[in-house]
Amino acid sequence: MKIYEYFIPRVPRRILLLIAASVWTAAGGILLTRGLLMVVSYPDNIIYIIGGSTIGGLLFYVLVFLHISRKHTERILKIKIERPCAFSFFNARSYVLMTVMISSGILLRLSGLVSQMVLCSIYITMGIPLFLSSIRFYYNFIFYNTIYSK
């Protein structure tokens, strides 16, 4: 065994599902919290913003995130190593995509190119599918032994 192998944080696949669920919950929670804190600045439009963002978020969840979360769950469950690296809940492509999305959100907020009203709608719209997608990971974590026992 190579020396660096001792420093790789390894966890069972079941725990990898919990880590993925926690990361997706945190990301969704951060976006929802930011969006909802910003939306109170627009009391005249609050119903439209929350309503439109909820519809958009649910559509985005059904059309995109259901597929993405299923793909990540299946990939985690098919990992051949019994105790993979704790960071392998995402593949390399997903880490790049996550970095681009976070950077874009920060740049949009700091640049002032997009109004705060639009930005809070984007945050809520993206937070909903992230948060809902985490449920699949929690489900598979909770029922791992029942569903995947050999």
List keywords for this structure.
mainly alpha, 0% strand, 150 residues
Explain what you see.
The protein is mainly α. It has one domain. Helices cover 74% and strands 0% of the residues. The chain has helices at 13-39, 46-77, 92-111, 116-142, 144-148. It is elongated and about 60 Å long. The protein starts with 12 loop residues before the first helix and ends with a helix. The mean pLDDT is 92.
How far apart the termini lie comes to 29 Å
Helix percentage range: over 70%
Unreliable spans:
none
Order of helices and strands: HHHHH
The assembly state of the depicted protein chains is single chain
Number of strands: 0
Strand content: under 5%
What count of structural domains? 1
Largest sheet: none
Question: TL;DR?
Answer:
This protein is mainly alpha-helical. Helices cover 74% and strands 0% of the residues.
Can you lay out the helices and strands and say which pair or pack?
Blueprint: H1 13-39, H2 46-77, H3 92-111, H4 116-142, H5 144-148
Helix pairs in contact: 1-2, 1-4, 2-4
